Amino acid sequence: MTKTVLVTGSCGLVGRRLCASLRNDGYSVKELDLLGHGSSHGDVTRLADIEAAIQDCAGVVHLAAVSRVVWGQRDPDLCWHTNVTGLQNLVHAALVQKAKPWVLFSSSREVYGQAPSLPVTETCSLNPLNVYARSKAEGERLVLGARNQGLQTAVVRLSNVYGCTKDHADRVIPAFVRAAIEGSPLRVEGSNHTFDFTHVNDVVRGIDALIGLLESGAQSLPPVHLVSGHPTSLGELAAICCRLAKSYATLTETTPRSYDVARFYGDPSKAQKLLGWVSEISLETGLMRLVEDFRRELALHIVAETSV
Fold first, then answer.
1. Whole-number Å distance between alpha carbons of 59 and 54
2. Cα separation of 9 and 139, whole Å?
């Protein structure tokens, strides 16, 4: 019998790739997203939408969220309502099912805040610096606490996922790549700020592996982050984008935002031990693919404009 998995936030960067991967693995997939159409359209903050979608599901991957630090700062109430109330709705709906589905919650490396030492391991204390991070830390508490009520859960922490032209245009990697191709200035908010960038295909592989553990009945799984383990500063990232795009675009350094973590890179050893997972797509390889994808889209756009 084909098992059904519900993916909330299915129209997002990770959600789109994950839904395709799950279907390829033989699962039936239900989708729920504010941007979805027909039965896939839904709002996690409306309990009725979650209750309808979760029926007959073996598991849920919860990706739906106000997913950007800057969006959380602009509308903290919406961020908390979506990220925390939406998750409360999901946990409630899962617990009242006759056959309780497992729940995999997508958290963020933001929960660590500015860690006292690098690389960061999953046992590092949580010290969220902004409302988005606090909402994710509270989400982890809710999901892990639901184990006491018989829910099988897992937490995955994601770190600066990239790899698709349909990502939000103002996120750092799409913004840098597009600017490099167009020859526009690359706006760098703190050239020495350092992060751990992970390709979306690698992330989906990791989530697939975690789903495999849940499906096998694994209990009390520890939170795990999917990280490359390689630090890259924003200044280095901008330079790589320009080199790969063969661009002479200039860099414009601006003041970093006060609510951002300045430095993070993680230790990937737990993911390797628990999931057999390591990041396989190097940053340069992933960026080169993105440069090529953006160039193809730009060429198609030019062709479409000239044919009008």
1. 8
2. 15
How much is the average pLDDT of 78-93?
97
Look at residue 306 and tell me whether its pLDDT is greater than 60. Answer: no
What CATH number does the domain containing 148 carry? 3.40.50.720
What Å distances lie between residue 140 and 91, 201, 256, CA to CA? 12, 24, 28
267-280 burial code (b ≥16 CB/10 A, e <16):
bbebbeebbebebe
**Cβ pair 67, 12 in contact under 8 A:** yes
Q: Where are the alpha helices (DSSP H) in 55-130?
A: 69-74, 76-80, 86-95
∠ CA 258-264-268, rounded to 5°: 155
Within-domain flag for 300: no
Does any domain span residue 151? Answer: yes
Q: How far apart, in whole angstroms, are the C-alpha atoms of residue 244 and residue 180?
A: 9
User: Residue 6: pLDDT band by 50, 70, 90 thresholds?
Assistant: very high
> Of 91, 97, 133, whose CA–CA distance to 112 is shortest?
133
Number of structural domains (the chain) is 1
Computed on alpha carbons and rounded to an integer, the radius of gyration of the chain in Å comes to 19
| Residue 243 included in any domain | no
Instruction: Report yes or no: 8 and 64 within 8 Å, Cβ to Cβ.
Output: yes
What per-residue string of b and e applies to 237-246 under the rule 16 or more CB within 10 Å gives b?
bbbbbbebbe
Rounded Cα–Cα distance for residues 64 and 286 (Å) = 24
- Which domain range does residue 108 map to? 4-162+197-229+266-281
